[in-house]
Structure formats: C-alpha cells, structure tokens
C-alpha cells in the first residue's frame, strides 16, 4: 500500500491541472509515451490525437504495463485508484473544462467499459455529452440510413458527424433526471435552440414498451417544441417499424421518408437523422412550418433541478 500512496501522491503533483484523461494541450498527445511524459502513469484508456489530411482527429488508445504505465491498487475505501466519469458533467466536476473528445464510463452494469464521446463544456454552463451531431460542412459525410442494430450501437466519428447509440443514450439518461439541449442551423444560416428540462430514453427491452421509448418535456427555446409530438414513441429504423403509422416512416427513399432512425409517430414533426440537403433533415417550429437544416446537435446532462 505504501507504493500505492506514493504513486497517488506523485499523480497529484504532476496532473493537478488535468484530473481527467486528457492534458490541456491535448494535441501534443500522440501515444502512450507522450501521455507518460505528461505525468499520467496509470494503466487505462486515453485520448490521443493524429493529424489526418491537416485535420486533428482524436482516437482512444489503451496504455498498459509494457508502455511503462503502472497498475495502481485500489484505495482502502474500495474505489479504483483511477478517477473515471460517467458523463461529461462529471468530467467537468473533476476540472476538465475543454470542449472536445473525452472518455466516459456510462454503463452502470459495465463500469469498466469506456467510450469516446464529444463534450461541450462551454454552452449554457457546459457539462453536456453530445449524443448526435450533424454538420454538412464535413468532407466525408456519414450515412444516417442505418439499421436498428447500428442505431443501438452508435456509428460515425466523434471528430465529425455521428450518432452515439441508443444503448449509450439509455445509460446516460437512466440513473438521474437529465436535460436535453438541441441546437440547429438552418439553410439560411440562422441558429436556434430547443431546451427540455426532462429527457429520457427507455431500455431496449421493457415490458409493454417499444424499444428505446422517448420521454421529453418542459420545453423552452427559439425553434419550437419539435420533439413534443414524439413523446412516448419507440425507435424506428429502415429495418424495424415501431411507429403508429400504417406505413413505415423510416423506410428509405421511395417507400417513405429519408431513412434515418428516429422516434417516429405518424410520421414526424422534427427529424435530425434525415439525409443532408433534404426536407427530411428538419426541425418543426409551429403548425405547417419547419426549418430545413444544415447542422444540428443534441446533447444531455444531469439536470440541475430535481
Ligand atoms: Ca408503421
């Protein structure tokens, strides 16, 4: 145990400004050796940065004993030697104030499973974990016409456009009350937001409920309550129809709408997964009116009001 406490003391000295997994000048972290030189000595997952086509991209790597890292023993109170966060709000509470990719451990039943996520630590107080990002300015755009299993697991790249996965959204919104912030930019370049004080995604298998049923409420914002129409709906995709339409709202072009997975009813007011450059990537504002979008983001954080 003496060794443990010596190492923890060393950690406190050299990483006092970076209690998360990422140093402030994260772009200099390219491998485990760089991470060790920054004073991070513990076996675990870290964010590193590679330059690809003049763009800095974050990826997650694992550094272990053969990289010169140390397997720290658990503390006497039984908690792990390494501080981990379940979401971006907990990272913020640990002193991580930078926007960008970081590592969280959101699964209460698999607390050692890390995922690379995008954190927003500045908008409206920060602490947000981004669950979907669409942005048509990227070079290689992600196809959002995906299967139920792909939407469950998540797809895309946190450096660009992505969907974090219904499995993760359920884990993020389940243990506590969460709020949701939707931000949009329409085809005229106008930006707006919708804030919901309450947001929750059910589990994949719940008695008497469709998979990943959405609850959302207490709207304020500038673009209208686009999600209100979708309350209580399960998640539908090109290969799984959980909507209440006689048709199939998630059917791809030709059969229905844009093919994106969504909490369709019959069929939708807002949909943030439709194809770029079409009216199926849009946000409802009021009866008969909606914004066609170029960019959109949804992000969640534990609610400050309970
Ligand atoms: Ca249907």
UniProtKB/TrEMBL annotation:
<keyword id="KW-0732">Signal</keyword>
<dbReference type="InterPro" id="IPR002181">
    <property type="entry name" value="Fibrinogen_a/b/g_C_dom"/>
</dbReference>
<protein>
    <recommendedName>
        <fullName>Fibrinogen C-terminal domain-containing protein</fullName>
    </recommendedName>
</protein>
<dbReference type="InterPro" id="IPR036056">
    <property type="entry name" value="Fibrinogen-like_C"/>
</dbReference>
<feature type="signal peptide">
    <location>
        <begin position="1"/>
        <end position="18"/>
    </location>
</feature>
<dbReference type="GO" id="GO:0005615">
    <property type="term" value="C:extracellular space"/>
</dbReference>
<dbReference type="InterPro" id="IPR050373">
    <property type="entry name" value="Fibrinogen_C-term_domain"/>
</dbReference>
<dbReference type="Pfam" id="PF00147">
    <property type="entry name" value="Fibrinogen_C"/>
</dbReference>
<dbReference type="InterPro" id="IPR014716">
    <property type="entry name" value="Fibrinogen_a/b/g_C_1"/>
</dbReference>
<feature type="domain" description="Fibrinogen C-terminal">
    <location>
        <begin position="79"/>
        <end position="304"/>
    </location>
</feature>
């Amino acid at each position: 145990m003496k060794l443990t406490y010596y190492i923890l003391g060393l950690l406190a000295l050299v990483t006092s400004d970076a209690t998360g997994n990422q140093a402030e000048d994260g772009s200099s972290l390219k491998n485990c050796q760089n991470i060790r030189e920054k004073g991070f000595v513990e076996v675990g997952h870290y964010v590193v940065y590679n330059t690809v086509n003049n763009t800095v991209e974050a990826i997650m790597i694992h550094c272990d004993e053969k990289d010169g890292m140390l397997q720290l023993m658990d503390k006497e109170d039984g908690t792990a030697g390494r501080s981990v966060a379940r979401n971006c709000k907990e990272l913020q509470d640990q002193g991580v104030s930078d926007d960008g990719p970081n590592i969280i451990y959101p699964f209460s039943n698999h607390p050692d499973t890390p995922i690379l996520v995008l954190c927003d630590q500045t908008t409206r107080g920060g602490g947000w974990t981004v669950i979907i990002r669409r942005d048509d300015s990227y070079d290689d755009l992600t196809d959002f016409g995906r299967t139920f299993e792909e939407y469950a697991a998540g797809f895309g790249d946190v450096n660009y456009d992505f969907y974090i996965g219904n499995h993760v959204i359920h884990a993020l919104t389940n243990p506590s009350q969460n709020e949701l912030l939707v931000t949009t930019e329409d085809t005229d370049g106008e930006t707006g937001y919708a804030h919901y004080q309450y947001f929750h995604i059910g589990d994949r298998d719940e008695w008497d409920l469709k998979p990943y049923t959405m609850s959302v409420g207490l709207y304020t914002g500038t673009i209208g309550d686009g999600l209100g129409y979708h309350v209580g709906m399960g998640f539908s995709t090109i290969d799984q129809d959980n909507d209440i339409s006689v048709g199939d709202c998630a059917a791809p072009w030709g059969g229905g709408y844009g093919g994106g997975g969504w909490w369709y009813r019959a069929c939708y007011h807002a949909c943030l997964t439709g194809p770029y450059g079409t009216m199926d990537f849009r946000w409802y504002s009021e009866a008969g009116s909606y914004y066609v979008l170029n960019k959109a983001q949804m992000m969640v954080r534990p609610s400050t009001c309970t």
